[in-house]
Amino acid sequence: MTDxxxxxxxxxxxxxxxxxxxxxxxxDALIRFSAEFQEYGLIVHxxxxxxxxxxxxxxxxxxxxxxxxxxxxxxxxxxxxxxxEDEVPAEFRDARxxxxxxxxAPAPGLTD
Length: 112
Ligand SMILES: [Zn+2]
Ligand SMILES: [Zn+2]
Hints:
Order of helices and strands: HEEEH
Number of helices: 2
Structural class: little secondary structure
Helix content: 10-25%
Bound molecules: zinc ion
């Protein structure tokens, strides 16, 4: 379970819905969290799977974790895996490849 910056984000990120297993199909879904990349995106409900990456939480204003997308590709390359061709190992489909990482650090200088 990933720690998000605040309760609102925890509720909204990949909000489970009993009618739609895919957040892109759910009109109520707002935030897509890609655990493997540590990226947060606003879901664009245009019928596809687009989302707009955000750097700050819309609710608490904290800076969100840095994207690990580049590291993800580097790490796979280091193992000789081409994500376009080869099967991506299970731990690279979620946050497990990042190891024991702490949750997002609170932004310095922000007081509640
Ligand atoms: Zn937040
Ligand atoms: Zn739904």
